[in-house]
Amino acid sequence: LYPRYAPSYKSTLHISEYAILINETEFLSNPWGELHRVYSSLTEMDIKRKIHAIALAQRVVFPDHPDSLFVPAFLREAWLSIPESDRVVGCGSGCTFTGQ
Prior knowledge:
By secondary structure, this protein is mainly alpha-helical. It is 55% helix and 0% strand. The radius of gyration is 19 Å and the shape is elongated.
């Protein structure tokens, strides 16, 4: 449910790329069985992709990361959250607001 209701940087990061997701209902009814099913389905390449993706996610999420992408990712998310009709770019102090 988390990816659906509370995604972080939803247009930049996709949680399924860097996290191992577990079905909550299946986990609650059979924790070890669900963990084993997920573990058994992962390949070495899946793990390598997730490690690569989590390295990118860390750069996006942590502003103090040495190669941080926090500011550009945050600005991108903010920009995408503004309806296209309300976006104003590069007009200095002489802008007129065209949104409703």
